Amino acid sequence: MKIFIASDHAAFNEKQLLVEYLKGKYEVVDLGTDSLESTHYPEWAVKLVKKVKSEDSVGILLCGSGIGVSMTANRFSGIRAALCRDSEDAKMGRLHNNANVLCLAGRRTSIDEIKKIADVFLTTPFEGGRHAARVDLFNDLGE
Questions:
Q1: pTM
Q2: What Rg, from alpha-carbon coordinates, does the chain have?
Q3: How far is CA 24 from the centre of its chain?
Q4: CA–CA separation, 41 vs 103, rounded Å?
Q5: Residues 6 or more apart whose Cβ sits within 8 Å of residue 142
Q6: Cα 73 from chain centroid?
Q7: Which of these, 110, 71, 111, 117, lies nearest to 94 by C-alpha position?
Q8: H or E segment to which residue 42 belongs
Q9: What is the SS3 string spanning 54-123?
Q10: Is domain 2-138 given the CATH code 3.90.1150.10 in the classification?
Q11: How far lies 52's CA from each of 4, 31, 78, 80, 110, in Å?
Q12: What residues are labeled active site?
């Protein structure tokens, strides 16, 4: 499975640690940022979303709170970005909402919890059924 990952400066360190953790399990494509220098989270979210859409893949976005990247990503049709604060959020985001972008809070979530959340998100399948009809109601809204 190919996973795209990106962050702003506020979650740069967490992104780097997560990339290293996931590399042994998945094909990980790090889209940036590449330093702690201040940057704008929407730029990274848009870059990742375009890759996820064009390659029908999944992505992980990080910023300080996770809120900014999730708001940006969810502006695009076909993107179902879930801000997950724990493993249960990740499980339900995939199981019931078929989330294809995981959003994480680098400044609010420990790296150990980030790893757990990512593991659950990346291994939980979409349940489909009645949930597919619900996802279809919003999947093509937006840009």
A1: 0.94
A2: 14
A3: 19
A4: 12
A5: 74, 75, 76, 77, 79
A6: 9
A7: 117
A8: helix 41-55
A9: HHCCEEEEEECCCHHHHHHHCCCCCCCEEECCCHHHHHHHHHCCCCCEEEEECCCCCHHHHHHHHHHHHH
A10: no
A11: 7, 11, 9, 11, 25
A12: 63, 96
* CA distances, 54 to each of 4, 48, 49, 108, 117 (Å): 12, 10, 8, 31, 25
What is the identity of the amino acid at 55?
Answer: E
Tokens of 63: 């910023």
Token pair recorded at residue 41: 């989270």
Rounded to whole angstroms, how far apart are CA atoms 23 and 44?
20
H or E element: which one contains 50? helix 41-55
Q: Which two tokens stand for residue 24?
A: 């042994």
Peptide bond into 33 cis (omega under 30): yes
Grade residue 142 by pLDDT with cuts at 50, 70 and 90: low
Residue 135 · residue 97 · CB < 8 Å: yes
Domain positions in the chain are 2-138
For residue 12 the two structure tokens come to 């740069």
Q: Give the pLDDT confidence of 55-81 residue by residue, as tens digits.
A: 999 999 999 999 999 999 999 999 999
SS3 27: strand
